[in-house]
Amino acid sequence: MILKINEIKSSFRYFRPETLEEATDFLMRRGSESKILAGGTDLLVAIRSGDLRARYVVDVSRLDELRKVTVDREKLTIGSALTFSEIIENPIVQEFAPVLVRACSRVGSLQIRNTGTLGGNVGNASPAADSIPAMMIHDARVLLTNAESERDESLGSFIVGPYKTNLATGFLISGFSLKIWPEGFRFAYNRIARRRCLAISRVGAAAMAVLDENGKVTRMRLSLSSVSPQPVRMKIAEECLVGQIPDSRLILEASQAVTQEMVHLSGERPSFVYKKPAVQGLTTKTLEEIFFDREEF
Ligand SMILES: Cc1cc2nc3c(=O)[nH]c(=O)nc-3n(C[C@H](O)[C@H](O)[C@H](O)COP(=O)(O)OP(=O)(O)OC[C@H]3O[C@@H](n4cnc5c(N)ncnc54)[C@H](O)[C@@H]3O)c2cc1C
Predict the structure, then answer these.
(1) Tens digit of pLDDT for each residue in 188-217?
(2) Share of the chain above pLDDT 70, in %
(3) What is the pTM of this model?
(4) pLDDT for 121-168, tens place per residue?
(5) Does any ligand 1 atom lie closer than 6 A to the CB of residue 38?
(6) What CATH number should be reported for the domain whose range is 2-59?
(7) What is the topology classification, in CATH, of domain 205-291?
């Protein structure tokens, strides 16, 4: 089938494989001329505007193999073609990765949540993507498949820069594996957007922590979007909290460490006049939510 719609500046052949094997076979032969389509909320916008051209568009959104959620003792595996809404409603993800559920529920509008997928969010590699910090704090690995093999790679190294991944020709993202934590962890995801809805967040913060019976932090994970060219965990801030009983002074110290890390990773920029206090404030609110049971920001 050839789609030629007036406002679409480029035309392409649309292919919807029935199985993963069909998809990877096609990508093996024609991968260099193809773009993978899931929900199309990023890809079709780019094709329509003429920013992106492809001879073939391979629709993987209905492949059963990419739409499963499984869990074992150590990891939760989430198929790449699940939409944000499907993730939000999935009881296994709700139990083992509630921070991802929270991040997905903050995405755009209901239409975007019903159409956009986790694989597309990572494939597009926007520095502001909501799912990425939530997956970074679960030490997520990207599961990649081609016609001959499967491999995995850490999410942090898979995204090589803003809107750039190192997805090799012929491969597709089949899913993500997230390390699961024992019961009793605290979590939060907050973001600052231009508007509450229909806006891509400017900065998002995901955090998880475990406290011992004395209130001391035994385990800490923190990751923010839009603060670095590649997704990262804020390890200096994490280290500043581990082994301590958090109070306002310590939270301020950790939040300042995040802004320093942002400058270190991205270099000073004119936008940081706004961004530094925003990032510091967002980190503070997120840590206060976790440690002082404050309300969602
Ligand atoms: C109005 C609006 C609001 C939005 N709000 C938000 C928001 O609040 N937060 C947010 O994070 N994003 C937001 N977005 C961006 C977008 O919806 C998300 O990035 C979404 O997750 C993309 O998923 P998709 O399935 O639509 O991807 P597609 O558009 O189908 O694909 C996106 C990219 O990923 C690649 N890709 C898709 N699936 C695979 C796969 N299985 N293997 C390899 N590559 C693949 C495609 O080739 C393409 O490069 C918004 C977009 C719009 C238009």
Answers:
(1) 999 998 654 444 558 999 999 999 999 999
(2) 94
(3) 0.94
(4) 999 999 999 999 999 999 999 999 999 999 999 999 999 999 999 999
(5) yes
(6) 3.30.43.10
(7) Enolase-like; domain 1 (3.30.390)
CB of residue 201 inside a 6 A radius of ligand 1: yes
Query: The domain 64-179: what is its CATH number?
Result: 3.30.465.10
Atom of ligand 1 nearest to the CA of 37: 30
Ligand 1 touching residue 261 (CB < 6 A)? no
pLDDT digits (tens, 9 = 90+) for 64-103: 999 999 999 899 999 999 999 999 999 999 999 999 999 9
Q: What ranges do the domains of the chain cover?
A: 2-59, 64-179, 205-291
DSSP assignment string, the chain: -EE--TT-SS-EEEE--SSHHHHHHHHHHHGGGEEEESS-TTHHHHHHTTS---SEEEE-TT-GGGS-EEE-SSEEEEETT-BHHHHHH-HHHHHH-HHHHHHHHTSS-HHHHHH-BHHHHHHHT-TT-SHHHHHHTTT-EEEEE-SS-EEEEEHHHHEEETTEE-PPTT-EEEEEEEEPPPTT-EEEEEEE-SSSSSS--SEEEEEEEEE-TTS-EEEEEEEESSSSSS--B-HHHHHHHTTS---HHHHHHHHHHHHHHHHHHH---TTHHHHHHHHHHHHHHHHHHHHS-PPP-
